[in-house]
Amino acid sequence: KKKGGMDTDEFRACLISMGYDLGEAEFARIMSVVDPNGKGKVTFQSFVDFMTRETTETDTAEQVAASFRILAADK
């Protein structure tokens, strides 16, 4: 049972569900930011840091955290 993060596919699904239209190059760029060690895992803190930089003022920290909790549930 995984804990504390999302794998690459889950993270991609999360971004798509939030309206990102990702090509391979753009997704690779984002992964290099959120997973600099290349472990294939996106931690909650990396997710929050990325979303804080990427989202507009309309997305609150709680909305970002809720998105992570929904997509990382039971992991």
From TrEMBL:
<dbReference type="GO" id="GO:0005509">
    <property type="term" value="F:calcium ion binding"/>
</dbReference>
<feature type="domain" description="EF-hand">
    <location>
        <begin position="22"/>
        <end position="57"/>
    </location>
</feature>
<protein>
    <submittedName>
        <fullName>Alpha-actinin-2-like</fullName>
    </submittedName>
</protein>
<dbReference type="InterPro" id="IPR011992">
    <property type="entry name" value="EF-hand-dom_pair"/>
</dbReference>
<dbReference type="Pfam" id="PF13833">
    <property type="entry name" value="EF-hand_8"/>
</dbReference>
<dbReference type="InterPro" id="IPR002048">
    <property type="entry name" value="EF_hand_dom"/>
</dbReference>
